Structures are given as structure tokens and as C-alpha cells.
Amino acid sequence: MNIPLLELSQITVSFDGLYALNNLDLKLNTGELRAVIGPNGAGKTTFLDVITGKIKPTSGKVIFKGRSITGKKEHKIARLGIGRKFQSPRVFNNLTVYENLALAISNPKSPWPILIGKQSNVQRDQIIHLMNIINLQSMANLKAGSLSHGQKQWLEISMLVGQNPDLLLVDEPVAGLTDEETDLTADLLKSLSGDHTILVIDHDMEFIRKLESPVSVLHQGKVLCEGSMDSIQNNPQVIEVYLGKPEEVNE
Amino acid sequence: MQLILESLFNGAAIGSVLLIAALGLAIVFGLMGVINLAHGELMMIGAYSTYVTQLVFRLPALKFFYSTYVIVALAIAFVVSAVVGILLEKTIIRRLYGSPLETLLATWGVSLILQQFVRSVPLAYASGLIVTLLIGLLSSFFLPENILKYKHKKFVKLITWIISIFSGLLIANCLSSTISKLGRASARNVDVTAPSWMRGGVEFIGITFPITRIVIIVITIISIIGVTYFLNKSVWGMRIRAVTQNRSMSDCLGISTEKVDVLTFGIGSGLAGIAGVAVSLLGSVGPNVGSNYIVGCFMVVVLGGVGNLLGTIIASFAIGIMTDLIGAGRLLTVWPDMPDSLSTIIDFFATTSMARVLIFALIVIFLQFRPTGLFPQKGRMVEG
Amino acid sequence: MNKITKNKRWLSFLIWVLIIAFIISAPSILPVFRLNLLGRYLSLAIVALGVDLIWGYTGLLSLGQGIFFALGGYCSAMYLQLNSSQDFPNNIPEFFGLYGVTKLPFFWEPFKSPIFTLIAIWLIPALISAFLGFLVFRNRIKGVYFSILTQAALLVFFNFFNGQQKLINGTNGLKTDVTQLFGQMVGSDSMQRLFFWLTAIIVIMAWFFSRWIVRERFGNVLIGIRDDEPRVRFMGYNPTYFKTIVFGIAGALAGISGALYTVQSGIVSPQFMTVPFSIEMVIWVAVGGRGTLLGAILGAVIINYAKSLVSEALPASWMFIQGGLFIFVVTTLPEGFLGWIQSDGPRNIMVRLGLRRPLSTYPSLEADGKEEVKP
């Protein structure tokens, strides 16, 4: 297993001369759980936008499963097996919990099968199974808009799982969650890795630590360093980026 | 050479009317994301203001100044349309920010009401109502500040409104008795006659340029310069741009976004009023005068892209020149040895209304390559 | 799924019973003139269903449905004109004589066939709307941009049909009431009664069809596109195709509606493609309740009936009422009449007046500023 699942090489994105990403390189192996951290403006969200096709890189290549997906449309990339969870939960507020999951699970996703085909029993069981995991089975027929923030986060993660992608991109999954929910989310993500490849972006150091995964630090559109959480936390460069120069800290 | 010059001039003439009509619409759309379907009716109000001003200048006391009425009408039309626009913003559009489609429908309702209003209310009384609104709304700017002290605020406001209602009634009566044309219901179209200096044309290397057209081009140029200067150099212009880029941040910085909205909308509406003056010089004025221009404005906005005055300008002139070339069949004269098959097609489209058909098709083709118009916005903001 | 709780289902059921009872009894209680008007308004309900599909469900505000409405009307009128032109010079419709045309324009030929016409009535508008829609959707043009493009398209079609005397009688339009069908005058009372029944049946079929479209996952995808299109895309759906299909369906419904309207009003003309008429279609749906198919039908029929009654009594006031209606619905009743009832609007008013006790709510919902939801 030498071919990485996802490989970004020399990705540059510039908005009117402002570099959001600058010659970024990153490799992700199959089954890996990887965390990406970085200060504000480091280009974390742009980085996800490039992988999912929302933004075309100014230069550079994105290679997924050995094929270039640079410049492909969002839905094509999603069908190839890349799923994304957004920073603030984006579920469909006017659909019920069940319907939200049904949309994620349906496959194929072209219009005719969706219009004419019926939902299979396997899919129904799968939806019920997912609702059990996130503890929302009693709210299956409630509009997603009436869920609490944490429930929405979980619903979105379970939609992502239901989509069954090879690569899960998870953007700040624990923003606004309680400590207990944060722990549960970390466990959930850990249990998913192996079968899936997962890339998590977050600010929350405690949460990242719980993932027990390799960490990449993004700074000014580049990967500053990679390694385990402990080695990262002792890396002088990282400390400088996050806290400023030592003497400023001591002030 | 002569031919090309004539085509260019005609194109510029059509384009400048389009531009002045679309300018207000484009500004409001670009800065606030709101499409105002009542824009055409604000133009109509401007055109009727011109007509009323003209009739007032015919009165014996003002007859001496008659030739200057167009200039006065520009100011009046701007203010009147702006006030109506501001009223519209304060009562309806304000509630609908963030839902542009709903705004579209609501402003269509407004345009229906305004059209029917002009049809069924005699102009004298409409003018009276406008004067009432003007005095009532603007009085707070003119009164000395200490009168508006908090304690008496409501009382003073009541008095100013009573005064303004009376002055409105007075003016309505005065107008309806002295100018018989204003007293009647005005369902029929009316004509604005240009002052003598604007009739005729200027001859230049064998071509006659009608003066009205030149005047309209000049009005358009002055408006463009004024708007650009205002948006880029003045304090309020800077605030308007700030609110466009980041509303909540501007709010935090102490910019009154409410005032900015009112101002932006007022300027857009006022420009519609100026466009109304221009339009009234070209043809008769009726309740539908504005809606005849509105779709042309849409094409300009779609072609020009959002939030860019240069795009609006180029788009207007491009559409203007194409309308002239295709609609007047001038393409054949410019390019006589056109292949037969092409010339039959061009011939088929050689009327003003058919030219629109072809131009629309061209715009749709253009959008296949540049979906966001001539000058698209860049960066993270785009997808919202 | 229990999207609608029991008593709301009762409400829909009740409305349907009333509608069907009304339709069945209408021919015997209404004079022919009123019956004809009712038939016309019922046919307008079909185009309203299409508007509801694209606007209420998918969030595409089209101000150009008049194009497809008129196309359907022209298709039916062309057949009827050809069907009764044996007595005229050159065996072509009479109006051609006015412009010295002696040969039938080529695109009229297929309309000699009744079967072709029956297909063309919905297929031509569907194809044109899907094609135009595809060109726009594939470039991700949406929102207000889409609306003003559709309005521009409407005016373009209007200009085109208005200017072509030699092809389709230009501004005068094509008359159908003096043409023959099955050996009878189309404008005759018995034919009109037949058309009324036909319209009533097709409205109900169109409702079932639209409901089938939005009922399951397809409708949910449409709602997803309306609420958060990029999200739908990241799930692997291609919104362009969904939008194109639903826009095509709305075009087809508009075509059928236009054909039925034409045979009942006796003429099709470029007036069907004026700007106000197409925007009115949107307001029928808005008043009835967008996203509720039944609301579209009710809105179309009731508003048009009110319009005819008001315009007969006070011609000038309808514009004021209509303008006010636009503003009122958009600012204070955004979910429309039926949506208001379904979201416990009447109950909330009673609560305000102190006549009933408020429903208990989730505390979290109140904090979020959401509307009341039954536990």
C-alpha cells in the first residue's frame, strides 16, 4: 500500500495576489486519521475548498486514488468518495432527520433513479442504524431545524458517514459542543478510521489530543510541520506561530 | 468614416439613456443586492416631475426663466424620486433585507400601485402630496437643533406635519386652478416640450446631431462622474462601500447601517428621477413610460456584472451600439459585402424590437463564457 | 412519513371534498358565462402548480412562465385554425390572406395532426424551458439574476411573437372560438362545458403528478437545493440536472395550462406574454401558500375570481388591491394562506387574543427564536 489515498502537490491559491495557500504539499494514506491545525487565516478552509472542488487552485495538483481531481465539479468529486462536513452545521432545516439521512444515503444520485426508484430496505435499516448511533431515533420525523446545535453537528456527521465516502473531511466538528459531546465525537471519529480515511480540522487542542493521531500544522498557506501531538507541542516553530516569540509571552 | 461616426453617435445616444436608466438600478443592486422592480415607476415620477415643472415655468411670473426649466427639473426630479424611494425603503424594503426574491415581488406591488396612482389621481393633487412629503420629511434638517430637543420632539413633529399638509393642499389647489392641465385626471399620455435651445441639431462634417441627444449624453456623463466621486471620495461614500463589504463589522465600527441603506436607496432612486427627465425629453410621458425601459436596464445589469460601475457603463454602450447596428439595419451599410445567408438573418432582425431578441440571444451566449458578467467579483466573498 | 399531522391531513381532505363538490355542482348552479370563467381559472391553476414546483420547492423565481403558457396556447390554436381552414383561399387560415401569404409556413405543417398537437402542447414548452434553464443553471446563475433573466426572456419572446404577422398573425393573435372541433364550434356552450370538465380532470391529474414529484426523495432534493445548494452538491447530487428537470416540468404544466386557457377564452395572443401576467402567476402561489400544492390551486382560482368580480364593480381599484396584496403577502404572510393555517396561524391569533392557551414548546426552540412546534 504505497499509493497515498490523497495527495496534494504544490497547491497554490491566490485571491488577487493574496496567497491563501502557497505551494502546499500533503499526503494522506488509506485508513489514516489525520488532524490539521493552524491559526486563523492559515488557509484551513481554503484547503478543504480545494480538495472538494469549490475552489480551483491557481496551480498545483490534487490526486485522489491515483487520479487527478483538480478542477472537477463538486458533485463529481463527492461521488468519487470525498465527503465534507462544514464548519457550522449545515443540515437541511426544512427536512426531517430521517429525510436528511435518506438524502445522504441515496445512491445513485442522478435525477431519474431518485424520482422513479424506491428506497431499499437495506437503506432504511441503515438510516435507522445511524439514527440509533446518534441517539435521534425518537426525533426521526422532526424537522432538523428544531434540533439543538449539538444534535445538528451529530446529524451532519452521521449524514457524512451515511454517504459512505473513502475520505471524510471534517471541519471543526466540536465547535459549540459540551465536553461530554466532544469526547463522544472523538471516540466516534476514532472508531470510523481504519474503514475510512479521515481528515479533521480544528482549533481545540484537547480534542485533537484525544484523537491520538498525527497532526499537520498549517501556517500561512503551507504545512509548517507534521508529527505526533507531543512533538508538535514542543516544536519551537509551532510555539512561535501560536504564541508569538518567547519574550513576548514572558511579558 | 461618416457612417461609423453616425453609428457611434446613435449607439452612444441609446446607450446613454440605457445607462442613466440602469445606473440607479445597478447601484442599488450592487451595493444592497436588491432588485427594485419599481425603478421604472421612479423614472416615471421623474418624467412627470419634469412635466409639472415645465407647466409651472409657463406661468406668467416665471415665463422669463422658461428656457432653464430643464435644469431645475433635474434637481426636482432627483429630490422627488429620492424621497419616494426613501419612503419605499423605510416602509417595505427594510423588512425584507436578506430575501432578495421577496423584495423583488414587493417592489412589483409598489410599481403597480404607483402606476395606478398616476392614472387615477390628478397631477395637481399628486404634486400636493409630494410637497407634503417633502416638507414633512425634510423639515427636521432645516429646523434649528434646539427646537428638536427631546421633550418637544413629538409635538414639533406633529406641527411640521400639519404645516406640510396645509402647504401641500395649498399647492394642489393653486396648481389645479391656475394650470388647467394639471387639474384633470391624467390617464392620457402627456408631452414635455423641450425649450427652444434644445430643438434642432448641431451639424458636424455633414451629420446632424440632435441637441436633445447631446444633452442626455451630457447629463449621463455628469451623473456618472458625480456618483463615482461620491462613492470613492466622500465620507458617506466610503461608509456605503464599507457596509456593502461587511455589514456587521461596519455596524460594530459605529456606522449607522440604517442611514447607509436609506442613503444608498435614495441615491439610486434619485438617479431614476434624473433618468426620468432624460426619458421625458425623448417621447411622451405616460404611466408606462418607465416599464418600457426596465428590461433594457436588466440586460445592462446582467451583462455588466454586479458592483462595478465600469461594467455597467461598457454594457450600456455595447447594447446601445448593437441595438443601433442591428435594429436600424445599419450593419448592412457598414459591411456591404456580407454573405447572403448572413444578410437575410440580419434583415430578419432589423427592427428595434427584433434587435432586442437577437441581443438577448447574444447575452445568453455570452453568459455561457462569463456567467457573472463582464467584471465578476473575486475572492472568498463570492459564494456568500 | 408523518410530515403532516393528522388534523392537517383532515384539513386538506376537507378542502378537496369542497373543491370536488364545487366542481361537480358548478355546471348546474353557475350560468355559462361564469362557468366559462371558472374553467379558465382552473386552467390557470395548472400553471400555478408549475410555479409552485420551481419557486415554492426549488427556490427558482421565474418571471417568465408566460412564455411556456403562450407556447401551449399557440400550439392548440394552430391546430384548431388548420382544422377549420378548408373554406379559406389556399386552404390555409384566413389571416394569412391579409398579409398576402399563400403558402403555409413550414412549422405549421405538423400541427395538422391532432396527435402531434396533443404532444406538442406540453413537449415543446417543456423542451424550450429545459433548454433555456440548462443554459442558465449550468453556469450557476441563480437568485435575482435568474429572475431578471427570465423576465428579459419573456419580453424577448413577446417582441418576437408580436412582430411576426406573416408567421403567426403578430399582435392580433390566433382566434379559436370560431374554429371547429369534432364538427362543433369551439366557442359553443356545449363545447365550453366539455372543456370545463376536461380542465377540472386535468387539474386534479396535474396535482397528483406534482405531488408524486415532490413526495419522496426527489422533492427533498429540490428543497435541499432551495435551502442550501452547495451542500447538496457536496453530497454528490448535481443540482443543474434536478433544476433543469423541474423547470422543464413546470414548462410542460404551463403549456397544458395555456392550451386549456386558450380554448376557453377563445384567443391566444402575445398578451399572454406580458410582464404583469407572469408575475401574477407568482402571486397566486404566494397567496395560496408556496410549497403547498393545494395552495397554488386555491390561490390561482380564488384570486382570479376575485379579480373578475372586483374589476367588474370598480375597474380602477384592482391594481391597488393587487399591488397591496403583493406587499402584504411578502411582508406579513410569507408562507401564504394555507401555510399559515398549517403552521397554527389561527391558533396563534387566538392565543394573542387570549382565547386559547399557548402550546408548550421546547425551551431551546424559544431561545433560538424558532416558531412553536408541538412536542
What descriptive keywords fit this protein?
heterotrimer; B: 384 residues; mainly alpha; ABC transporter involved in vitamin B12 uptake, BtuC; two-stranded antiparallel ribbon; 16 helices; 2% strand; globular; disordered C terminus; C: 375 residues; two-stranded antiparallel sheet; 17 helices; 70% helix
SSE order and pairing:
The complex is a heterotrimer of chains A (251), B (384) and C (375).
Chain A: E1 6-15, E2 18-28, E3 33-37, H1 44-52, E4 59-64, E5 67-68, H2 74-80, E6 82-85, H3 97-105, H4 111-116, H5 121-133, H6 149-162, E7 167-171, H7 179-192, E8 197-201, H8 205-211, E9 215-219, E10 222-227, H9 229-233, H10 236-243, H11 246-250
Parallel strand pairs in A: 3-8, 3-9, 6-7, 7-8
Antiparallel strand pairs in A: 1-2, 1-4, 4-5, 9-10
Chain B: H1 2-32, H2 39-57, H3 69-91, H4 100-120, H5 123-142, H6 153-178, H7 180-183, E1 201-204, E2 207-210, H8 211-233, H9 235-245, H10 247-252, H11 257-282, H12 291-304, H13 309-327, H14 330-334, H15 340-348, H16 352-369
Antiparallel strand pairs in B: 1-2
Helix pairs in contact in B: 1-8, 1-11, 1-12, 1-13, 2-3, 2-11, 2-12, 3-5, 3-11, 5-6, 8-9, 8-11, 9-11, 12-13, 13-16
Chain C: H1 6-29, H2 32-57, H3 65-83, H4 95-98, H5 114-137, H6 143-163, H7 165-168, E1 174-175, E2 180-181, E3 184-185, H8 189-215, H9 217-227, H10 229-234, H11 239-265, E4 267-268, H12 275-288, H13 293-313, H14 317-332, H15 336-342, H16 345-352, H17 363-367
Helix pairs in contact in C: 2-8, 2-11, 2-12, 2-13, 3-5, 3-11, 5-11, 8-11, 12-13, 12-15
